Inverse folding.
């Protein structure tokens, strides 16, 4: 077994985390202090929890491979399909990202702001008179699904199916996950075939025409990006919005401060990303025997850099357990780092900023209905709540 003899008596830390997934942070601290590099028998991987080590892992794709971390999974665990950008190494990763960036441009994202605001207002109009809403169900879930579907040119009647596929893919349900990927690929292939015959003003049509020196994306690569955008884009935005409002509820003075000074909102969002990181951990494979800290890890073994733990590392962040919207600098790793920096981060930030701006403007107060217990989303790497009922008080 990979762990050394000194680790054989180690407590089952991941079991403790899974018992209280909404508050893994005390365990993260203990891990950083006592077991900064340790082997998890539950996940068959080395968990890396200190900021410097996590940054090293995600910044070195040659030594810590995304692509090989998928190949190393046991037979039958992986859907045999083209890997998404997330699971591709250089040099192909660089080529793919350059091609995708031609279609998924900063201007494309910035131009979405008016439509995002329209969607947010539309959903809030349906609940404002009721005096309460479920932030996740009524806003945070549908918003990114609608935005991504419209980006891809997907008709409104199919958007609920998008949500269904996304929920399954981030869940532990392996067989259902495999079937969801097959169904999603079949759907996107149908859309690609239609766009090849009749191009429209949408992202899939733009992806079909993107090229560098005569090199185009294959259909399989376009499908893989659509899957990535749907799942990662939806889950990141949904949980970032939910995590923000949950955290603001715990810190009422912050909500009031942001109402008085909405220009502080971008910094507040960055602090939410650090404080309650939507994607808590990643997965990489060691390509050459190496040392991390005091541990020798062999080629082929899996490491899991824990972003949520790194973002509370006392050596980099002053009072990391304190939620501080004025924190500067805030060098969190919530969207990764290096070549795999989240390609959808600008979209998640935009959707969250627009949604929060409107909530802060329309409502004098938002308070969680504490009688309803919080439930963590069914995922070992996504951090968020399934629902977040809140009372609303409209501004007069």
């Amino acid at each position: 077994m990979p762990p050394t003899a000194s680790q054989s008596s180690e407590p089952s830390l991941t079991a403790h985390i899974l018992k209280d997934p909404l508050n893994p942070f005390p365990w993260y601290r203990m891990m950083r202090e006592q077991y900064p590099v340790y082997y998890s028998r539950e996940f068959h991987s080395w968990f890396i929890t200190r900021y410097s080590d996590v940054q090293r892992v995600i910044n070195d794709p040659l030594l810590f491979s995304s692509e090989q971390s998928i190949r190393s999974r046991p037979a039958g665990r992986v859907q045999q399909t083209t890997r998404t950008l997330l699971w591709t190494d250089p040099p192909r990763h660089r080529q793919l990202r350059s091609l995708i960036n031609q279609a998924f441009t900063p201007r494309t994202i910035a131009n979405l702001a008016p439509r995002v605001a329209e969607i947010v207002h539309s959903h809030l109009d349906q609940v404002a008179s009721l005096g309460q809403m479920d932030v996740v169900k009524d806003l945070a879930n549908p918003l990114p699904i609608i935005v991504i579907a419209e980006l891809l040119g997907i008709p409104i009647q199919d958007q609920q199916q998008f949500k269904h596929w996304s929920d399954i893919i981030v869940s532990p349900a392996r067989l259902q996950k495999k079937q969801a990927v097959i169904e999603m690929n079949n759907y996107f292939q149908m859309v690609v075939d239609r766009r090849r015959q009749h191009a429209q003003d949408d992202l899939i049509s733009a992806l079909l025409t993107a090229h560098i020196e005569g090199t185009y994306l294959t259909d399989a690569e376009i499908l893989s990006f659509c899957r990535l955008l749907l799942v990662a884009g939806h889950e990141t935005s949904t949980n970032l919005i939910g995590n923000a409002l949950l955290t603001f509820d715990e810190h009422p003075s912050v909500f009031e401060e942001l109402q008085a000074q909405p220009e502080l909102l971008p910094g507040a969002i960055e602090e939410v990303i650090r404080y309650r990181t939507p994607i808590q951990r990643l997965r990489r494979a060691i390509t050459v025997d190496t040392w991390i800290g005091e541990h020798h890890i062999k080629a082929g073994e899996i490491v899991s850099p824990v972003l949520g733990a790194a973002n509370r590392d006392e050596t980099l962040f002053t009072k990391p357990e304190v939620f501080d919207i004025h924190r500067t600098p805030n060098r969190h790793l919530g969207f990764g780092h290096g070549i795999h920096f989240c390609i959808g981060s600008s979209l998640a930030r935009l959707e969250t900023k627009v949604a929060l701006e409107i909530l802060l403007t329309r409502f004098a107060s938002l308070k969680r209905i504490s009688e309803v217990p919080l439930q963590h989303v069914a995922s070992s790497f996504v951090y968020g709540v399934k629902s977040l009922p809140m009372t609303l008080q409209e501004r007069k």
Observations:
- The longest strand covers residues 363-368.
- The chain has 17 helices and twelve strands.
